[in-house]
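In this notation, each integer encodes one residue's backbone shape. One such record reads:

___
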Amino acid sequence: MSTNAHQHHEADVAIVGAGPVGLTLAIDLSRRGHRVLLLESRAFGEPPSVKCNHVSARTMEQFRRLGLAERIRSTGLPEDFPNDVAFRTAFTGQEFGRIPIPCRRDRFTDRSGPDGWWPTPEPPHRINQIFLEPLLLEHAASRPGVTLLSRVQADGVEADDDGVTVQAEDLDGGGRVTVRARVLVGCDGGRSGVRKAIGATLSGTPVVQRVQSTLIRAPQLLSRLQGPPSWGSYSLNPRRCGTVFAIDGIERWLIHNHLAPGEDETSVDRDASIRTILGVEDDFPYEVLSQEDWVGRRLVADRFRQGRVFIAGDAAHLWIPYAGYGMNAGIADAMNLSWHLSAWLRGWADAAVLDAYERERQPITEQVAQFAMDHALQMIKAKAAVPAGIEDDGADADALRERYGQEMVALNVLQFCCAGLNFGYFYDRSPLIAYDGEAAPAYSMGGFEPSTAPGCRAPHFHLADGRSLYDAFGDDYTLLCFGAADAAAPLQAAARAAGLPLVRLDIDRTRAPVPDVYRHALVLCRADQHIAWRGDALTEAEAAALVARCCGRP
């Protein structure tokens, strides 16, 4: 690893931005054997902001693939700290609703909650970005073939038929830096210079919600709670609504003050709002560590690529940061793009394979952005309608709190236990997928129907030896054979002839708990767990045509 800017560098892939998305992309590309160079304007190891508080199940599945899931899961909140989401009149006030989510100690054994049934080898994990990003950074920096240039600001991009040249400035006075790469990926956030360089524009809803957000240290706060702690806590009263997230489960807390229409970050008394949300007195001691104010948006770029230049993560889409959707969608971008880039760089796929990234990921980010905005609008409406007597004493107030609590739990379980956003999304317009006429099932934020329709996520199950199905996947394509070894022969032969990397996985339905939706003898799966094709048999000509499609030669 290098942390000093030099005059000239070369790489297969240059990445601008070393946040979670850029780091994940670099890790996977290096794992696939490519030279990667990261340009980051921050100092090496400089702590990130407390943006994301949650790693989704689909992201944890990918971190499992990268060999990082166990280490990530062992970090963050104390192992016995409840990952629940509570609804209270104030943080230290009366609780009137709770979404149960297991602590990390019980994550694989407690099946009682609304996400305990999920069909995955890796349930979600509550961990703040200040713990996650350093782990990714350390791992990326240790990878062979990864070079990190810290304190370097990219300020020019020029692409040609053979590659991309990035011009940058060493922010510590080291002069100009030039990077030459075959491909450039901008993971440089909402103000992305790479996005601007390719002329892509964001469109959607520029302001959905304004939030005055503050990271505090308050060692005495946990002792003020009435009842058990929770990872997330909604403070809901007629005076001021907000959310409080446990960062370390000990003394650091992130407080979101949800501003009302007409308010902005500068017009609202920060200290008074924090105290109202917490429900503490004027003399209660706390220390402001940072101000993390943000504006909730719904914006998606009109394109994710121009030639050899791509964008991913916040550079490509911005929306309300509920439940970590932004970072998790960005990591899905990274893993999707890494596979496409590697296929082309290694030479077994044509350049047309690169078209699949935008055609697959852009529609998904549009959908997720809309889900997030719709939920945000419902929450804004619900918080504006906090019952006036919710803080009163007596049986009537108790009944009022119970009714309102049920409403808030029902609405927010979709956000915090979003099975649909994890497992339901599908690619329905990919040039690499052989569709067969069966439409993928529709999904919602909270619900989905498992399916083997091409484009869907391969439904998970455990093999006869106890391994996760996904642990047996190859790095590119995996052919699931349900007692159909002879039927697989034409596809295997066509793959060998074309140089398509293909792993065959034989599965005995009598020994493994195969879901009923696996109706076909053969199912071809991609590295990202999405299904590329299914069937019961193939002629040699059909196999050759399918392999050509998988190689970007439809």
